[in-house]
Amino acid sequence: MLRQTLLRLAAVLLILSLAACRRRHAVARPSIDAREGRALYLRYCALCHGKRAEGYAADHANALGNAGFLAITTDEQLRSAIMNGRPGTPMSAWGANNHGPLQPKQVDQIVAYLRSLARKRFIEVDRLPHTGDPARGAVAFRASCEVCHGPIGEGTPRATSLSHPNFQQSVSDGYLRHVIVHGRRGTQMAAFGALPRQTIEDLIAYIRYRALPPAPPPSPTYGPPPGLDQLVINPHGTPPKLKLREGRYAAAADVAKALEEKRKMVLLDARPTSDWNRAHIVGALPFPFYDVNELAKTLPRDGTWIVAYCTCPHAASGHVVDELRKRGFANTAVLDEGIGFWMQKGYPTAPGKVIEPAK
Q1: Nearest-CA neighbor of 94 among 281, 267, 288?
Q2: What is d(CA 204, CA 198) in angstroms, rounded to the nearest whole number?
Q3: Which CATH superfamily is domain 134-209 in?
Q4: For residue range 12-63, what is the model confidence (pLDDT) as tens digits?
Q5: Which of 35, 40, 128, 343 is deepest in the core (most CB within 10 A)?
Q6: What is the pTM of this model?
Q7: Degrees (nearest 5) of the Cα angle 328, 231, 337?
Q8: What is the C-alpha to C-alpha distance for residues 171 and 117, in angstroms, rounded to an integer?
């Protein structure tokens, strides 16, 4: 009898130990200071994800503090998303490995802060691969998912991208299954658990089928951007002729024409430098929205036109313009459609300067 009791106790302790081990993989290390993470979050993340991580402060930046999201999202998923971003979307790569502003420890601090917001116990989603058919899933996706996520899951202002390679690589079929069944309370993601079980499997198959091509190879090594003494484009030119919508927004066509006519102006890329390195408007220099206090001191105060842009297309650039106007810079504008539209139209862009590895 005593032996059976001891065996049962040992089994319970083993289960608890395994659970604790899994939990350590799910949550931030206790040595990481969540208070430092909050300060970093407010500086770099709150503009889009909200001051309380409630989400949707700009574009379709998701609710990072949502209880359902944190209950199934591991620290590694959060860390990967912060460091590597979602290239081609407003979600920048913030890690120093991608020439962003955050060192690994700072990323861990932000993750610790987000984990501190969790209001539910962590859930280990199942590891079962889907058993669905993408052709049937396409029909179900059009009926239930397309209106928010877009025809191929590319994402819309209402919902995140499901087809982005970085997202696809970071989540399991079990993760997708859990979200489809349970939804995300407090967001527009409804629960679809009433769907037939096979239909849910078919949806997962279609989401996997619609995955975009694999992410590009690791970021090359970029050199530093040009000095701020090169801020003014065409310093001997005449001012651009910009008609501002609502006294604030300059059309991409007007800015492109001004560049072609060699007008005197300043173009500010309000995104992190990691985005500027990938592609920026010709002549623009990095002017990250989170460094506007310091960088504003470098701008000319002679009435030169200053146009800021980002991806969203108005959040980061709008913040920069607001801050500049507070400081007395009158001739300022936001590029109305953002750099995504600019690139679609084939207006001039350039990457950062790549440093070739030594042979």
Answers
A1: 288
A2: 10
A3: Cytochrome c-like domain (1.10.760.10)
A4: 344 344 344 444 444 444 467 899 999 999 999 999 999 999 998 886 788 9
A5: 40
A6: 0.85
A7: 75
A8: 21
Length of the chain: 359
For residue 110, give both structure tokens.
Answer: 């932000």
The pair of three-digit structure tokens given for residue 221, joined into one six-digit string: 């090594």
The residue to which tokens 């500010």 are assigned: 268
Q: How many Cβ atoms sit within 10 Å of the Cβ of residue 51? A: 11
The per-residue pLDDT for range 226-276, each reduced to its tens digit, is: 887 889 999 999 999 999 999 999 999 999 999 999 999 999 999 999 999
Q: Give domain limits for the chain.
A: 22-116, 134-209, 228-350
Task: Please give the structure tokens belonging to residue 189.
Answer: 């993601």
* 102, two tokens: 């955050």
Asked if 22-116 and 134-209 have one fold, the answer is yes
What is the CATH T-level fold of the domain 22-116, as seen in this structure?
Answer: Cytochrome Bc1 Complex; Chain D, domain 2 (1.10.760)
Whether 88 contacts 167, CB under 8 Å: no
Residue 296 C-beta-side C-alpha neighbours within 13 Å: 17
